[in-house]
From TrEMBL:
Lineage summary: Bacteria, Pseudomonadati, Pseudomonadota, Alphaproteobacteria, Sphingomonadales
Primary enzyme class: oxidoreductase
Source organism per UniProt: Novosphingobium album (ex Liu et al. 2023)
Encoding gene per record: ispH
Family: Belongs to the IspH family.
Cofactor note: Binds 1 [4Fe-4S] cluster per subunit.
Protein name, per record: 4-hydroxy-3-methylbut-2-enyl diphosphate reductase
UniProt-listed Pfam families: LYTB
């Protein structure tokens, strides 16, 4: 329980990054689940966590969502929703074969990468896909094309180990939630080794990932510590911790205000706070309340971009 007065009388300068928290794809995915519960009645099944945040998932469970990892766990006759990270083509095909009504909450920016993958294969190119092994978005993207047509690239060393000749018909794509700087370095290595490689028409890393990393780059050099509100399995949140550390601050991932150890603040005069794209503003307010219970706070929001993007809902849930 927090003390009723600050345990440390020194003022703490607090720089709150903006943009932070929910992006348009996460907003859309959560609204799909909420609307589906209203339309169909509970329970509504969701394959995989709709977004990578326990607070959000638990809130949707309380409303009537049931989260499962495979379609085998979904009973007949109930609707199922696919998560914002995207799924292999085989998943909706299997749901249709079972006669399940399904809704796709895949982020439209992930779906854009899926369509690019299909087009590159149709053009006869092998895809070098930059991403993290085992991430649901990577699994979903690999599942858009026939086996053997895509190679995962995680590091520059992976580029050096590729078996393709310099004149091979290749294209590259990437996961949407990667480090902007790391991905740029890998792309440079790919282009150096394969000068004729086909690039995507537009940057694959999504606007929200790029904007949140840019905001952290702005505040982190001024801070001794940056707190990133997010989940350990959230790729974009983990990248924010890395960006903070590369910018000269200590980066710490937290999920709730209670995770903050007062000892972390002992040598801190300026603290940064941000939130991954799956973390709601409610958790930001909780963290700020916790900090105000530990130190006198002088808070300032540092805005580096304005986001006004929205995505349409599936037609089944409109009207």
């Amino acid at each position: 329980m927090n003390a009723p007065f600050p345990i440390d009388p020194r003022p703490l300068r607090l720089l709150i990054a903006a943009p932070r928290g929910f992006c348009a794809g996460v907003d859309r995915a959560i609204e799909i689940v909420e609307r589906a519960i209203v339309r169909y009645g509970p329970p509504v099944y969701v394959r995989h966590e709709i977004v990578h945040n326990r607070f959000v998932v638990d809130g949707l469970k309380a409303k009537g969502a049931i989260f499962v990892e495979t379609l085998d766990d979904v009973p007949d006759g109930v609707p199922v929703i696919f998560s914002a990270h995207g799924v292999p083509k085989s998943v909706p095909a299997a749901a249709t074969a079972r006669g399940l009504e399904w809704l796709d909450a895949t982020c439209p920016l992930v779906s854009k990468v899926h369509r690019q993958a299909e087009r590159q294969i149709e053009a006869g190119r092998h895809i070098l896909f930059i991403g993290h092994a085992g991430h649901p978005e990577v699994i979903g993207t690999f599942g858009q094309v026939p086996d053997g047509n895509m190679t995962l690239i995680e590091t520059i060393a992976d580029v050096a180990a590729l078996p393709f000749p310099a004149d091979a018909e290749l294209a590259y794509l990437s996961q949407t939630t990667l480090s902007v700087d790391d991905t740029a370095a890998i792309i440079a290595a790919i282009q150096a080794r394969y000068p004729k490689v086909t690039a995507p028409k537009a940057e694959d890393i999504c606007y929200a990932t790029s904007n949140r990393q840019a905001a952290v780059k702005e505040i982190a050099p001024l801070c001794q510590l940056v707190l990133v509100i997010g989940a350990p399995n959230s790729s974009n949140s983990l990248r924010l911790v890395e960006v903070a550390e590369r910018s000269g601050a200590i980066g710490r991932m937290i999920q709730r205000g209670a995770d903050i150890d007062p000892a972390w603040l002992s040598d801190v005069t300026t603290l940064g706070v941000t939130a991954g794209a799956s973390a709601p503003e409610e958790l930001v307010e909780e963290v700020l309340a916790r900090l105000r219970g530990l130190r006198p706070v002088e808070a300032e929001e540092v805005v580096t971009a304005r986001e006004r993007i929205t995505f349409k809902l599936p037609r089944q849930l409109v009207g």
